[in-house]
Design goal:
Layout: H1 3-21, H2 26-41, H3 48-58, H4 64-87, H5 95-98, E1 100-104, H6 106-115, E2 119-127, H7 129-138, E3 143-147, H8 153-165, E4 169-172, H9 176-185, E5 189-193, E6 203-208, E7 211-216, H10 218-226, E8 230-237, E9 243-250, H11 258-279
Parallel strand pairs: 1-9, 2-5, 2-8, 3-4, 3-5
Antiparallel strand pairs: 6-7, 8-9
Length: 305
C-alpha cells in the first residue's frame, strides 16, 4: 500500500472509530480506548520491547512482574488518552470540568493572569495532557497550544480541528517564534509539551531518570525573553476514573547568565515531570525513545536502554 493510501486508510479508521465512540459516554468511550490500547501490548506487540526497556531503566529495582504490569497499563492509558482526546470536543460546553476532581496549584494560574504578563504552561506526555489543556480553557483562560505536525496530514488536521473545537488556538512549530510572543503580550497562556527530543528543535541535555535526555529549551527561552511566568501542568487519572490537575510554579527569574538560566529552567521542569511520573508510571508515554539522542561522551551504561 502506498503512503497516500495508507494515510487515507488511517484517517478513515480514526473517523469511523470516533464516530461510534462519540455515541457513548466519555467514561465508556475511554474504557473502550483502554481495551484497544492494551491490544498494542499483547497480542500485537507494538514497541513492546522499547516500553519494557524504558520502564526497567527508569525503575531498575523493580521485579520483572512489576515492569510488565506497568507496561501493560501504559498501553491501556495511551489508548484511553487517545480516545478521550478525540471525543472530548464533541461534548457540551463546560463538560470537561465534570471529568475532574479538582485542581491543585490553580492559584499560580490566577496570579499569572492577574500580573498580565501571560503564562507559559509546560507539560509532558503524562495522564491526559489534552484534557488538561481543555480544563484550563474551561476555567476561562485563553490557551494557545504549540504543536508539531503529525506524520499523517489527515490525522493531523483532525486533531487540530478537535483542539480548536475545545477552545484552543493552535500554533505549529514553524510559527512559534512569531506567534508565541504575540500570545504572551495578549496575556494568553501558551502550552508546550517538552518531553520529546526532535531534530531541528533547540535543545539542551538534562537528566531524566538518571540519564541525559535531549530536551527542548523553547519554553525556557521564551520565558526569559518575554519575562513570562512558567507553570508545570499534569492531568493525572485518579482511582475514581476522574482526573486531578496538578500545577507547579517553575522559577523563570533571570540571573544574567542566559545559558545557565535556560539549563536550570529546563532541568526544573524536567524534574517536575519525573516526580509525577514516579507517582503515576502507568500513565506515562514510555513508547517514545526518550534517550535516543545521546549526549557526547555518555558511557554505554547510561546510554539508550
Amino acid at each position: 500500500m502506498g503512503r497516500h493510501l495508507r494515510e487515507a486508510a488511517e484517517y478513515i479508521l480514526l473517523r469511523s472509530v470516533t464516530g461510534v465512540l462519540n455515541r457513548l459516554s466519555f467514561r465508556r468511550a475511554g474504557a473502550v480506548g483502554e481495551w484497544i490500547g492494551r491490544l498494542g501490548y499483547h497480542p500485537v506487540g507494538i514497541r513492546r520491547d522499547v516500553v519494557v526497556r524504558h520502564i526497567r531503566a527508569a525503575f531498575p529495582d523493580w521485579p520483572p512482574e512489576e515492569v510488565e504490569r506497568v507496561a501493560r497499563a501504559a498501553y491501556g492509558s495511551l489508548g484511553r488518552t487517545t480516545i478521550e482526546a478525540a471525543v472530548i470536543s464533541s461534548g457540551r460546553p463546560g463538560e470537561v470540568l465534570d471529568h475532574f476532581e479538582g485542581a491543585d496549584g490553580w492559584e499560580y494560574v490566577e496570579q499569572a493572569r492577574a500580573a498580565g504578563r501571560g503564562l507559559i504552561i509546560v507539560t509532558g506526555h503524562l495522564g491526559n495532557w489534552e484534557l488538561g489543556g481543555a480544563y484550563v480553557i474551561a476555567r476561562g483562560v485563553p490557551v494557545d497550544a504549540v504543536a508539531r505536525h503529525m506524520a499523517n496530514p489527515h490525522v493531523d488536521g483532525y486533531f487540530t480541528r478537535a483542539r480548536e473545537r475545545a477552545g484552543a488556538r493552535i500554533i505549529h512549530d514553524e510559527r512559534a517564534v512569531r506567534e508565541v510572543p504575540r500570545a504572551i503580550r495578549d496575556n494568553r497562556a501558551v502550552a508546550m509539551l517538552f518531553d520529546q527530543g526532535a531534530v531541528g528543535l533547540a535543545s539542551t541535555w538534562v537528566k531524566f531518570f538518571g540519564r541525559y535526555a535531549k530536551t527542548p529549551r523553547g519554553p525556557a527561552t521564551f520565558a526569559l525573553r518575554l519575562k513570562a511566568p512558567v507553570v508545570f501542568m499534569a492531568a493525572v487519572r485518579q482511582p475514581s476514573g476522574r482526573y486531578r490537575l496538578i500545577m507547579e510554579p517553575i522559577s523563570s527569574e533571570s540571573t544574567g547568565d542566559r545559558e545557565a538560566d535556560i539549563d536550570r529552567i529546563v532541568a526544573e521542569y524536567t524534574d517536575a515531570l519525573e516526580r509525577w511520573v514516579r507517582r503515576y508510571p502507568e500513565q506515562y508515554f514510555w513508547h517514545h525513545r526518550r534517550w535516543k539522542h545521546q549526549r557526547p561522551g555518555t558511557p554505554p551504561e547510561l546510554g539508550e536502554p
